[in-house]
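Handout, section B. The chain below has 139 residues.
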Amino acid sequence: MNASIRLKYLVQLALVDNTFDDEEMKFVVNVGRANNMSEDEINSIINEGLKRKEIDSEQDFVGLSFDQKFEYLVSIIELMKVDGKIYLSEINYCKEIAEKLGFKKEVISRVTSKIHSDPGLSLDWNLLKDEIKSSLKED
């Protein structure tokens, strides 16, 4: 997934509860840096996100491999829990994104509980990937 699109969705999730706290900001900035984005690019995406909070079309997700979808799904769930508070609006947003990625909505609760119960993130990521594959929607 294009790094700027990924960052855009992370900013939208951060704003779903009408706050963009320091922990969420650090997470978004770190994701941008990890994707070799400049500070100007990161700030531009954050500022654009602050101006509008709408979920774009499924077009942003066309052509993604399963691994890219998995990585994105895990990222939005990690961001959702980064401030220690999980709001219903954030869960609903994640479910909407999960559907756009081609998953059943239920994947969010399954993955959230796995990630939330393992704060050290010592999860078996391959096992989690296999579990998530079973959540792909049938065409």
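Note. Helices lie at 3-15, 22-34, 39-51, 66-82, 88-101, 107-116, 125-133. Compare this with the example in section A.
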